[in-house]
Amino acid sequence: MIKINNVSMHYPGTGEPALEEMSIELNPGEFLFLVGPSGAGKSTVIKLLFRELLPTKGQIYFEDKDIAAYKKDEILQHRRRIGMVFQDYKLIKQKTVFENVAFALEVLGHSPKEIQKKVPEALQKVGLSHKEKAFPRELSGGELQRVGIARAIVKNPDLILADEPTGNLDRDNALQLMELFEKINREGTTVVIATHAWDLVDRMQKRVVALAGGKLERDEKGGYDHE
Amino acid sequence: MIKINNVSMHYPGTGEPALEEMSIELNPGEFLFLVGPSGAGKSTVIKLLFRELLPTKGQIYFEDKDIAAYKKDEILQHRRRIGMVFQDYKLIKQKTVFENVAFALEVLGHSPKEIQKKVPEALQKVGLSHKEKAFPRELSGGELQRVGIARAIVKNPDLILADEPTGNLDRDNALQLMELFEKINREGTTVVIATHAWDLVDRMQKRVVALAGGKLERDEKGGYDHE
Amino acid sequence: MNRYAFRYSMRQSFQSLSRNAWLAILTSGMIAISLIILGGFLLLTINVNQFIHTLESNVEVSVFLEEGVNVGEVEDRIRNLEGVAGQTFVSKEEGLEDFSRTMGDPTLLRDLEGENNPLPDLIRVQVTEPEQVAIVAETVQAYPEVELVDYGEELVARLMQITSRLNALFVTLGVLIALGAVFLIVNIIRLSVVARQEEVVVMKYMGASNGYIRFPFFTEGLVMGWTGTVAAVTVLGVVYAQLTSAFRQDSLILLFQPVTDLERLLPIFLGLMIMGTLMAGFGSFVSIRKYLRV
Amino acid sequence: MNRYAFRYSMRQSFQSLSRNAWLAILTSGMIAISLIILGGFLLLTINVNQFIHTLESNVEVSVFLEEGVNVGEVEDRIRNLEGVAGQTFVSKEEGLEDFSRTMGDPTLLRDLEGENNPLPDLIRVQVTEPEQVAIVAETVQAYPEVELVDYGEELVARLMQITSRLNALFVTLGVLIALGAVFLIVNIIRLSVVARQEEVVVMKYMGASNGYIRFPFFTEGLVMGWTGTVAAVTVLGVVYAQLTSAFRQDSLILLFQPVTDLERLLPIFLGLMIMGTLMAGFGSFVSIRKYLRV
Ligand SMILES: Nc1ncnc2c1ncn2[C@@H]1O[C@H](COP(=O)(O)OP(=O)(O)OP(=O)(O)O)[C@@H](O)[C@H]1O
Ligand SMILES: Nc1ncnc2c1ncn2[C@@H]1O[C@H](COP(=O)(O)OP(=O)(O)OP(=O)(O)O)[C@@H](O)[C@H]1O
Ligand SMILES: [Mg+2]
Ligand SMILES: [Mg+2]
After folding, report:
1. Scanning every residue of chain D, which has its alpha carbon at the shortest distance from the alpha carbon of C196?
2. Does the ipTM surpass 0.90?
3. How many domains are there within chain A?
4. Is A100 in the pocket of ligand 1 (CB under 6 A)?
5. Which of D196, D201, D206 minimises the CB distance to B107?
6. D195 and D115: one domain?
7. Considering D81, D115, D150, which residue would you say is the last residue of a domain?
């Protein structure tokens, strides 16, 4: 599904590149953890896949198409197929929880009826049914994070990109959500999660790609650490 | 140092109170973990202690003074004595990392010389010496979090209030920073940390106050869970 | 976009307006002020214009007749000329009396009455347009019955020159103020959009097309522009109505009659409304452009 | 605050200005436009005023003398009156000639020359201020040498009334436009602060006092206001200088001489600068008030 080919990312005005000559391939239906210390380049990879950034070197293929060569409309289509959980949530301040989640469906052109059905379902999955009408400023950190997850999963995306989706969640909630991602994955969605939650990574025993200082360190099935 | 006396917090327009009749006392030099599931009320307690919020019921005493009765100037003095790590970082977008940290000292009236000395020290402690000149938009999630920590510790506060300070940090970084807090605590600073990092809480074996649904569940020395 | 897009967009517009109510009201108010200044200036312009026009039209052509001609015949010919608004016959006797009266003593020239009267008969001709003065004078001058025509060429020329200068000045100022108002309105909207740039970026990340994001901003701009415009036109209309009625009640001030015919006022008011509304919509539209590039 | 506070504040101001340069330039530009409109209107006002004043001062008092009086003596007495700008003696012969000439034929009244001339001698008196017309006329009327005084009471009264009305209108409009400009400037600044509210909140949480936070915003406002004002005054000055020189080169337009004495222009320009600068500073100051309440 995705092929990252020798990709480097050098943010303008910085010294060393945030990502250096990284190459991985990802098949449809895979479940991948991106791990590595703070500043290793995990979010950079996620942003590159989301086409929020363009690589300074190398290519990224999505279903065999170079995403750097996307036309305007293809970028939209690309993002519509992806369920993205942003590290900084990126909720719309002026919209309620319900409206934030609903927006992802509105963009896809779902009918109001479908929206009325799917949004509560998604909120229920992340345990936020009771906060439907709250605005982001009225939520706790973990609640915000869960709204972001609900917005990503509500549209049954082909690919989920989740950047640190459990950083503000307690152990039980985090585990539940990881299991939710796994369940969605089992239903066919490809999942990429950048995370520091070593306990969950260890527990899930999925494919782990470890970065350090922008370089690929490890790519194998297993736990958070190399043993 | 702090006495929370029967405090309830009911956010206007919401159903149940976020905090219900909570009472704890905290001695100078103590090290306290606030734990509990997402939405339990941890941030609310931190915000109450910071006097960002006023309780709807009960009193909070800081050095035997009711902080709700503070005059304008006393609020400033109160906040100047506290090193606060916000769950959402609250860095100033238009300032560089150095300037953000320096601002905490400028407010206290430190001399430019002292600032030139202390800020790099603090940044070094959180491992961000190389990002001095970066703006917040150019940092990774974990880097932002560490800037927030540097800003809190740079002024040698009497009290550190840290709301989920390691949520976006990898295990090693998180552990190092926890140890940094412990070291500062040993030098006399009172520390209150709201966190989900069960592994670190278990490891440190400090006093743990557990909240659930706004109610005090447990208050004892030990680990993240009740055994 | 599909069949629900319009519905979602409209809901979005009204939601944004009510949730950013304070900002929306402030924006509308600022648009209103800009338009009131522009509209006030335009009203001033047409009134100054009218005033000068009245002044100029007051210039009369004095037609001195040869002795013993048929006055009625001459009057008929003059009446049929283009641009003639009216005429008054002043017989030589009346002329003498007038002159005496200006000298302060009606009996001053008593000796000249009757047969001795050296003055010619006179027809004073009023014209409709100041430009007609010279043309009418020239035409009438050619009549055999006419001894001489006089109309103060110099004064007319001077007035015409002042008029054309003032007109140029007012048009220039008007255009500048209009441009200023457009600049203000567009940028006021732009500032109000700055506060919402994050929202636009998030929408873009959700895969919303530029049109889908823009449409609510555009309609919000239209609504704010429309509100501000209606406020401006209302204020201008009420104040102007008061002023004109105050001026008109006073019959002494004959020279300065404010413009009240709808034919000339309507274009100004309509123009303001269209401009304010469109500029605000357009302002919203272009203002988010730079946040759409993500 | 302590001894470093001022230094930190100043650095903060200039940093913010340069980091929010786009916003700062936009804001200054909008302030400039507002002030140009206000200043343009004020310049228009003093010129219209001057124009009307010139018109009015052109009204002359005609003093008709008794036969055979000592003209020089009367002239001396008139010369010493307050408010008299000048006088012209028109002998009865000249008067007759003038009259004939207006009738279009200098020889028309040849019969009345010499002994038969029924006209009185005349002195035309020019006054300095339109208000003096009536006073001078009344005073001179009382002289035994004077037969009659005439000055077109009705015209003067009408002109005076128009003047006072126009003055009232222009003052009202001026005040309204000034208020509008203040409203615009203060709110433009307010919008530019909205984009930075988070910054203020964070500063407050760091324990910064209101004054400490406000001072940089205040100085930034001053700088933006000052920049906008200087731009406005420069544009106004250059354009006005062009216009006045264009008008003055034309000697034909005697009645309409633009105001050029610095005594009257300086207050306008200085007033604009002070107003623009202070309003922007004040705008910044009050705009962050609501974000300081945390
Ligand atoms: N916009 C940017 N401009 C400049 N440098 C950037 C930018 N974004 C990220 N960086 C730098 O690139 C490096 C990698 O950042 P990235 O966000 O990918 O890290 P990460 O692995 O997600 O870290 P974390 O776990 O802390 O979120 C960091 O050192 C960061 O400072
Ligand atoms: N400003 C607000 N208005 C209304 N409700 C609020 C507000 N802030 C918080 N709440 C609610 O109060 C409850 C407690 O919030 P709090 O932020 O204290 O939780 P927390 O323990 O910090 O959770 P987390 O671990 O997710 O950060 C939550 O249910 C939240 O939705
Ligand atoms: Mg990251
Ligand atoms: Mg919290």
Report:
1. D195
2. no
3. 1
4. no
5. D206
6. no
7. D150
